[in-house]
Amino acid sequence: MIESKFYKENKTSNNFFKKIILRILVTTIIALILLISFKMNSSFKKTFYHYVYEENFPFSVVKNFLQDKFGTSLTFDKLVTEEEVFNEKLSYKDKSLYHDGVKLTVSSEYMIPSFESGIVVYIGQKENYKQVVIVQQMNGVDVWYGNIKQANVKLYDYVEKGSLIGQADNKTLYLVFQKEGKFIDYQNYLAKS
């Protein structure tokens, strides 16, 4: 009985390392194919750079595809457990139309929750919105969280629904919703929150 328990643990450990090695090999092969393609075909390189760096690259679609085909994107996710401290829903006192989105009146030093799970694709200044954090949600909608006093996320962080984005400045939060480069109506999203 002791031998079978040791055998099962050893087998599980071997499968774990096989999966890691397989992921490393697949990543290496994809990187080599891209590098060879860049070297051989300059138009492919220009197209790739344009699509990835100049267009709105769909990180969430790629993540969902990889997760469907290869399982979880985090190999060690079962080993590391984090206690969830912040999991809130959006609350505000008043709303009004503002440029391409909505201006919300929130409480003093309001802690901003994420609408949906997604990837942080931008942190910086935007005209009319001050400090902005843009999260590309898994559904393909980019949400701009504007007038951020202090961001709690870093570029390319994965954020869960309800997790902390940052702190609003001066009781004002700007929200903009964008899909495929077009601004969309905020009312459908505020109704869901």
Structure, explained:
Helix content is 36%, strand content 30%. The chain has 4 helices and 11 strands; from the N terminus they run αααβββββββββββα. The protein has helices spanning 2-40, 42-54, 59-70, 187-192, and strands at 94-98, 101-105, 111-113, 118-126, 130-137, 141-146, 148-151, 158-159, 164-168, 172-179, 182-184. The model is unreliable at 75-84 (pLDDT under 50). By secondary structure, it is of the alpha+beta class. Strands 1, 2, 4, 5, 6, 8, 10 and 11 form an 8-stranded antiparallel β-sheet that branches. A 3-stranded antiparallel β-sheet has the order 3-9-7, with no helix packed on it. 19% of the residues are buried. The longest helix has 39 residues, at 2-40.
Percent of residues in beta strands: 25-35%
C-alpha termini separation: 53 Å
**SSE arrangement, N to C:** HHHEEEEEEEEEEEH
**Mean pLDDT score:** 82
Percent helix range? 25-40%
The low-pLDDT segments are 75-84
Number of helices: 4
